[in-house]
Amino acid sequence: MAVSVSLDELLGDQVRRDPYPFYARLHRLGEVAALRPTDPHALVVHGYDAVNRVLRDPVFRVLGSEYLDRAGIRWRQHAVTRILQTSMLNAGAGDHLRARQLFSQALTPRRVAALEPAILRITDGLLDELAEAGADGRPVDFMAAFALRLPSDVVGELLGVPEADRAWFPSRVRTFDAVLEIGRRSMREIRAANDAAGELTGYFTELLAARRARPHDDLVSALVAIRDRDPEQLTADELLANLIIMYNAGFRTTANLLGNGLALLVERPDALAVLRADPTLAASYVEEILRFEPPVHFALRYAGHDTEVGGLPVAAGRTVVVLTGAANRDPRRFADPDSFDPSRVDNRHLAFSAGPHYCLGAALARAEGRLVLPRLLDRFPDLTLAAAPGDRRQLMLRGYDRLPVRLTAPVPPL
Ligand code: HEM
Q1: How far away, in angstroms, is 357 Cα from ligand 1 center?
Q2: From CA 141, how far away is CA 147, in angstroms rounded?
Q3: Choice from 100, 245, 320, 359 to test ligand 1 binding pocket (greatest atom count within 8 A of CB)
Q4: What is the pLDDT of residues 274-289, one digit of tens each?
Q5: Is the dihedral of CA 393, 396, 402, 404 positive or negative?
Q6: Model confidence at 412, in pLDDT bands (50, 70, 90)?
Q7: What percentage of the chain exceeds 90 in pLDDT?
Q8: Which residue, 56, 77, 329, 379, has most beta carbons within 10 Å?
Q9: Which residue's alpha carbon is nearest to atom 24 within ligand 1?
Q10: How many whole angstroms from 231 Cα to the centroid of ligand 1?
Q11: How remote is the CA of residue 277 from the centroid of ligand 1, in Å?
């Protein structure tokens, strides 16, 4: 008989704070585990090979509008779910491919390489501000003062959002993101996310109109031109939804890569010293941070027809929880998976997912991590945690709400 686990446990406080002992237990059970018949999802898929297969196998689909309609979910009532369902994150195969092809042109490795000087400029500007906020050894919150601002400014640069408007985004995008977490959401969170969705839609509607009237040399102008030339390529709603999703997908994920990464390194002075001594190792550090403490721990998929995973049946229409965070710690795939080892070879983790929805911004996120971490460590050689980092309780966008650091030793009183 199949071993079953409980969704309540996965979503419980203990696992949310530290999911890794639970993941280790799942790995001892095999590649997949059945959930209880009363749970809304059929299975938890946690083994590396099984996760990789589910993400790539066309029988498993994202929870698009067709699925939500069949499940009787009234997603059209909410501005936030209208955007999520219209964006490529949840679009059905044909619509997905159309939008993805268009937006992927903005995120090719060549385009990302061209953005590097801007990433460095934004980094240095924010490091100056961080230095000021943390002068004389005053504790400063790394998340608010740096990690949550940098990715938002970088996406702003990528799209062509004017610099003066960029500081407006982080709080809206954060409120919008709250609905992405697995489990129940309060009406207050949903209402706030809808308001944020409305504000973001309003902003981009105006920006698109401004760029249509006076095109600039930026992505928003290029997308307006493509749409005006060939409206079949992208509907007006798809254009808006995908612009907003670029902000959301690239925001807290990258902020958490920086926050999780910094906390990990400060807690491991030996690994930190190696990176400080040789910044060319930054790319492998980023990969290991992503494997070890991924900013996203799971995805959901449903079966398009009756199928099986790891020998367990999944009926057509049933959903599975795909635990990429657990796959990254699968001992069958990674030797000594619970140790942080930036010198790992063949570190093909699943932090960016796999298959058709593989993260479109992976090259950009990698560049941000690779450029920013050494620069931060170089600028503040005495950086330490000013207090224990707060709890992380989210599995979808897993990171710290606050990460108090001291950039220099406190100045002793006279
Ligand atoms: C460390 C940072 C990041 C992580 C860990 C991350 C992770 C992910 C994951 C796991 C998915 C797939 C979800 C699924 O399979 O259902 C995804 C999709 C996506 N990501 Fe990222 N992401 C990061 C940064 C970025 C950045 C910087 C951008 C762009 C500015 C971006 C844009 C996207 C987009 C547009 C999608 C949707 C792709 C599709 O559905 O075809 N991401 N990301």
Answers
A1: 8
A2: 9
A3: 359
A4: 999 999 999 999 999 9
A5: positive
A6: confident
A7: 79
A8: 329
A9: 250
A10: 26
A11: 31
Q: Which residues pair with 141 in a beta bridge?
A: 404
> Residues near ligand 1 with C-beta < 6 Å?
62, 88-89, 100, 155, 245-246, 249-250, 253-254, 257, 295-296, 299, 351-353, 357, 359-361, 364-365
Output the six-digit token pair for 163: 């610099």
Q: Which of 284, 301, 281, 290 is nearest to 350 (CA)?
A: 290
How many whole angstroms separate alpha carbon 114 and alpha carbon 275? 25
User: Burial level of 161, CB count in 10 A (0-12/13-18/19+)?
Assistant: buried
Protein residue closest via CA to atom 4 of ligand 1: 253
Confidence class for position 11, pLDDT limits 50, 70, 90: confident
What does the chain come to in residues? 414
Instruction: Determine contact, residues 177/252, Cβ cutoff 8 Å.
Output: yes
CA 296 to ligand 1 center in whole angstroms: 9
Are 33 and 5 in contact, with CB atoms under 8 Å apart? yes
Distance 306 CA to ligand 1 centre (A): 28
Q: What residue owns the CA closest to ligand 1's atom 43? A: 359
CB atoms within 10 A of CB 294: 25
Q: How far is the CA of 353 from the centre of ligand 1 (A)?
A: 8
Domains along the sequence of the chain with CATH: 4-406 (1.10.630.10)
In this prediction, residue 1 carries a pLDDT of 47
Instruction: For ligand 1, pick from 153, 223, 251, 253 the residue to mutate: most ligand atoms within 8 Å of CB.
Output: 253
Between CA 198 and CA 328, with CA 81 as vertex, the angle to 5 degrees is 120
Instruction: Give the number of the atom of ligand 1 that is nearest the alpha carbon of residue 242.
Output: 35
CA–CA separation, 67 vs 64, rounded Å?
Answer: 5
Nearest to 234 by CA among 100, 89, 106: 100
Q: Is pLDDT above 70 for 97? A: yes
Instruction: State both tokens at 241.
Output: 């939804």
CA of residue 218 relative to chain centroid, distance: 24
For ligand 1, the distance from its centroid to the CA atom of residue 161, given in whole angstroms, is 20
Give the pair of three-digit tokens for residue 84: 């999520």
